Amino acid sequence: MLYENQITFPKAAERGLIAAALALVALLAVSHAHVNRMAYGDGLIYRYVAGHLTTPPSQIDPVVSSRGSSIRYGRIGFPALIWLASAGHNSLMPWTQAALIVLFAGITGAATACLFPRAGPIGAIVGFIAPGFSLSVVGGYGEVMAAALAVWAVVLVSRRLYWSAAGLLALAMLTRENAGAVLLGLIAWLLVKKKGKHAAILMTSLIPLLAWFGFVWARFGHIPLLDPYLHQTTDTIAPPFVGIYHALMKGSSASVATAAIHLALALIALRFWRRDVLAVVAATAGLQVFSSGVFAWHFVGDAMRAFTFLELFLLLALLRKRWLEMAFG
Q1: What is the DSSP letter of 159?
Q2: Stretch 31-49: mean pLDDT, rounded?
Q3: What are the boundaries of each domain within the chain?
Q4: Distance (Å, rounded) from C-alpha 143 to C-alpha 179?
Q5: More confident: 167 or 322
Q6: What pLDDT does 3 receive?
């Protein structure tokens, strides 16, 4: 599983600065250098949760509670870090949120540089090609943090640092629950390689997630994945294949196109799932396409963010295959 000509972590950090710089330029350009415009949509909800960690459920802003309090507080990783980095000061949270986005974009770039040691500095910015990742950078979304942790988990597994990878996977899933696809992919890869003991180590990453979901259940009455918002308001959860069928048959032209593109990506990932650990992760992330309901396709931006892991890991898998062919073919 070790990648050829591995670069050192310090060297990867150097290249990560390139990705961080690109993220900063994108944030400044989209926000016109106004810090309060460096987050919008769900990005603002992450900030709200950070500033209201202990607010009683009955006093949570209706804008947030109407979008599923258990979901928003279930994705605690990014808000908790915003709160920690700002020392709990609400006035500092817009600045810390933007700074963390840039930091995690750089961390993602350092990880992709490790995956592509022969690619040079360009290896640090390939993640930005994934639409969901770039959209999350300029929107202040938690997917940036989750992606950074998930890609590093793959790097650490490739270097046989299983306990460290398990810790990162736990944080990734506490940030975005669909990072569980990365855990599933890594477990599948290790089982194929007959490394069940190491797969069991990675499964310990579920313990913090389940513990937090239990806390959220006690506080809000639902675990995040069963929040009524998903069923009653947005129809996000649907039986497997039903959601993608509805998106293709009954959606707007934009949602049909987005659904068709992600379906194609999922099928490509499933076709090549055994080729490489990155392809296995992409394939498991692709399974989300078939289990997602109608709402995932209502807005193009939401769909791209929802399937960030599919877009990112399929891109990494295909580029890795191509670069290896160029290097050794």
Answers
A1: T
A2: 94
A3: 9-328
A4: 9
A5: 167
A6: 47
Q: Over the stretch 152-199, which tens digit does the pLDDT of each residue have?
A: 999 999 999 999 999 999 999 999 999 999 999 999 999 999 999 999
Give 40-72 as a DSSP string: -THHHHHHHHHHTTT--GGGS-HHHHTTTHHHH
Q: What are phi and psi of 292, to 5 degrees?
A: -85, 145
Residue among 302, 300, 301, 272 nearest 286 (CA): 272
Of 24, 43, 23, give the one whose Cα is nearest residue 127. Answer: 23
Angle at 266 between CA 132 and CA 117, to 5 degrees: 65
3-state secondary structure of 170: helix
For 312, phi and psi rounded to 5 degrees? Answer: -70, -50
Of 30, 260, 309, nearest to 151 (Cα)? 309
10 Å CB burial of residue 82 (0-12, 13-18, 19+) is buried
Scan for tokens 């806390």, then name that residue: 215
pLDDT at position 96 is: 98
Q: Which of 135-139, 191-195, 296-300 has the lowest mean pLDDT?
A: 296-300
